[in-house]
Input
Amino acid sequence: MKFRIIGNVVPAVEVFFEQPGEEMVTQSGGMSWMSDGISMTTDTNGGALAGIGRMFAGESLFMAHYRAERAGSTIAFAATVPGKVVPVRMKEHPNGLICQKGAFLCSQASVKLGIEFTKKLSSGFFGGEGFILEKLTGNGAAFLEVDGDIIEKDLASGEVLKVDTGNVVAFQNGMSYEIEMVQGFKNILLGGEGLFLTRITGPGKVILQTQNMNDFVRTLSVRMPKRN
Output
């Protein structure tokens, strides 16, 4: 399998199947275009419970499998908002990758999309992104959807990064992940930020995005005309 990232504002990944039998997986409705010579099947990809878990993590109940029937066929999966499509080689993350809700775009069939429960109840209740995250494991290539531009950080052992939760895309499984409250009453009341920050501790790799979609939606809602 080969691929290329195309487009600038709302990009897509275009996959070239080199051999019959190669397969890509995405959430239901995630495919943008494809050539002839590709078959499609849809299932819960692991059973009903797995599908329900993915729904809570921001994905669809059903997953679509696209299988090459002949060499040279192509298929594309596009982002849903302006930003980047980021290829991830899972061999670089042998313990898996933890992703925020909706970050998964598509992957080879050898990559498994599951769910990950945040380790502390406070992270789930107050973190702003929910109690359930996405977890990628296995071998092969996966593609993540990033809002805005991508920033990558390699944290040393014990190194701490504090991030607005909506700016976290993914981090390596095994890294410490928790939510902490912003200190100081004035900071909470007048600082203009949220009440909580995500605290990630190394060692490991963190993928960030410059666009916080929650902030973007709030900005738009303020400018939307109100009915009388």
Q: What stands out?
A: The helical segments are 48-56, 121-126, 185-190, 213-223. The domain at 2-223 is CATH 3.60.160.10 (Double-stranded beta-helix). The chain has one domain: 2-223. The chain has four helices and 19 strands.
